[in-house]
Amino acid sequence: MKIADFSVDRPVTIVMIILALLVLGLFSLHFLSIDLLPEITSPTISISTTYSGAGPQEVENDVTKIIESGVGTISNIQKITSTSQTGSSQVQLQFAWGTNMDTALADVRARLELVKRRLPDTVDAPTVFKFDTNMMPVMAVAVAGQQDLASLKKMVDDAIQPAIERVDGVAAVTVMGGLTREFEVLVNPWRLQQYNVSISQVIQTLQSENVDVAGGIMPRGHKNYVVRGLGKYENIEQVRNIPIPVQSGVIHLSDLAEVKDTFARQDTYTLLNGRPTISISVSKQSGANTVDVADRVKKEISRLQQQLPGDLKFALAFDQSETTKNSVNDVARTTILGGGLAMIILLVFLRNMRTTVVIATSIPFAIITTFILMYFNDMTLNMMSMGGLALGVGHMVDYSIVVLESIYRYRQNGYEPKEAAKKGTAEVGTAVIASAITVATVFLPMVFVTGLAGQLFKQFALTVAFSQIAALFVALTLIPLLCSRILGKMEVAGEGNRWWDRISKKSGQWYDAIDGKYRDLLAVSLRKRVIVVAVAAAVTLGSLFLIPLIGTEFMPAQDSGQISVDVKMPIGTILSDTGAVMARLGEAIQQIPEVDTVLTSVGGGRGGFGGSQTEAGSMNIRLKPKGERKRSTDQVMEDLRAKSRNIPGATIRVSSSSGMSILSRAFSGRAIEISIKGDDLSVLKNLAGQVSDIVKGVEGTRQVSNSMEAGRPELRLIFEREKVAQYGLTTAQVSQLLKMAGDGQVVSTVDAGGTAVDLRLMLSPEARSNTSALESLFITQGGVQLPLTQLARFEEGEGPNVINRTSQSRVAYVYSDYAGRDLGSIQKEIQAKVAQLPLPAGYFIQYGGQQQDMAESFSSLVMALLLALLLVYMVMAGQFESLLYPFCIMFSIPVAAAGVVLSLLLTGRAFSVSAFIGVIMMSGIVVNNAIVLVDYINILKKRGLARDEAIVQAGPVRLRPILMTALTTLFALVPLALGIGEGAETQAPMATVVIGGLFVSTFLTLVLIPVVYTLFDDLGGKIANRPWRRANKDVTPA
Question: How confident is residue 1038, by pLDDT bands cut at 50, 70 and 90?
Fold first, then answer.
């Protein structure tokens, strides 16, 4: 080949090119960001709208339905889901993958501008945002100190949070926990009635009295004076003494209400290992390096710890950078270990250290050169891209092996080093190029794979393809150059008396024996072609019957050491009761030896009529490093589930919080998700309960729940609308009184000692718990006091906690996780049992969650596999200038299926998206051996050998490179298949199926492909000898 000739004749030029690529690769590596997973752009837009004081049904009718209809006709929307709950509406728009989300966001905002005028006046303007994986925190820090929580919270708000926000690469900092100072005005409604003062009058007085007025400039003599009226409150005493005019004279605010210097009512608090703390969550900017951002934040925290008073203690409750570094480093170590094993295999076969070193240069060069292509394609160093390098490391040397072995034979035949390098490379160059192209080509269809799988594995596919291109370049340039210069004499070990010589000699004898047996087997196979084909067919078809024994799952579970626990108490549970349950659960968790830290969050969301979440709590559990614990994350999770069953009254869900698990839940939802569609909420609630019972009865399901929980207790105000209108009022004006019974209302702020303190007006605790006190409230209209009882009446009831909708119709969801069994078989059993459930007219059931995404991903990957096989065939057809020989080579792929099935069964692994990617990669690899073999058979035929003689001679000649390339790939993948290190669980199924498929295919290919070659050759001969073909040949041009 000309490129090989150029390399041998212009060594300095080639060396400079190689060095330039290495330098560029190392520079590219320096600038590559490090992340746990590839950055994923979700085609999802969320619309959030606040409707304070409104119940779920009012929110659904007045807000959610209007927004859904307004945005529902935007192009490329695939699905609309919504949630209507007390005080808020959430509408989520899911677009087709590949949609320009900036354009989609602009379209949504334009539609919302038209929708706004149809919403009630008291509804806040809808907010719109795109979902971004960078929104998820990369680290969580717990802060504790000697001072009280109020002082600590002030220090966090004033000093720590701003300092972290200024760190380069930080996008957002969220603070939870602590106490915030607040002045509360607790109004006594009976006193209001006694003095004939309305709530609105109190609010107006508090606001109008708390002002500073600018009076302009007043000239006096030779000076201009700024005129200011100072009326703002400076302390709580001034608030207590605010004068309020009444019919009998003037009273003070303290005559109507108790004014307290206290803390804002806690709706949430945080604990670290059971002790009160303040948690700080940090999110990084898009494109920022996770590890660098975390390191800078830690450095800033160290500085703050030294400078700030109070003996502050900072503890990492969650740190994605550590997981990221460990995962990337472990994959890198796996790559090095796999490369080392591949080199040992080469040394055993070649029995020459110098030839082994020559081939070993392929690995670092291919990897470092790949970094250049990764940099210019905006990729990052992550678990998937590094996994591509680890999975391809064994195959990186295959092309160099074939080239070197060919050069070696020419040297044995007496050619000079330079001539041997040129001729040896030229002989196998076309086959090597075709082999590399087939491996790279099988990943081209990955660009058509949709969903999360396509987003996750795109960088993996590109990395493998890039590394193969780099490995091909070094095989055609550097290997011939080194062979012509360094390997003057191709000596082998075995002549001396050293231990290595003895081992080398023994391995040589083993190979000679294998070579002899293979020659005999090949000769017999050519005579017994039917038996060979029948055995291969039996093995392939037999493996198909074993497929039902293999389970299926979306993505393999990761041993990340991160666990999340979500606790839900009965609706309406007060914060202290939720906290007691969380404390009990926390004590049980602390007894687990693998647990390192537990960050607990109790509650979330303000109570009263604004939408309470006091019944909810969560825990982020960080386990000890993998090497310091005996059990995996899944085993600890099962232990946690067992312990949580002993806590009555609480619904507790335990799940992995690894990066892959969080992504799967964010994009796909829960593992099992059943949608029940219909209109009537009571019917939906009944059906959801029945389906939940069915799911709970299926073995392997865990933590079954449904969206139609017990309703939230409500105190409803039923308006007499005609009377309200008669007095010139609106229901919104009357409803304003209810805020005092719930959260109250921040009516102003007080500058107390340089700190802005909210001034909150609300009913006294005694009045808030007494319906008669609420009834005694009145509103003033036109100088007339109107009691609330004249305008409305109170009644207690139970309202829906949340109303879910999908495709603009109501829906109830049943959720479940799974453990101890594969997802596919669980889903199949659930669907069979649910199908027997009678449904009322107008109600139907659909399935979603990770199971649906798995089915869609598998369907997309099947199309990718078929397209990959077609492209592989086309590449080979172009190489051989034949339509029949590629069919012959393609027979390597179906026999590899037997190895795939057996490898998954033996390892107990389920067939996942990762395993499917491995099958696609294997399809490009297994044909390489057949390409090399068939190519050499054709070469020998061109040299004048008969077909069978060419096969018998070509098989043993190509046996050594075939075994070397196969075994180096297999052994290089062993560390990855064993799942060594953090994050390796994702790549392990890929490595497993490649090992199984390549192992079976290699040994069957050595016999089957020569036999199939003869069958196709006979077929080609028959076609050529057809009468019409002979007639065409006999036609002589006129």
Answer: very low
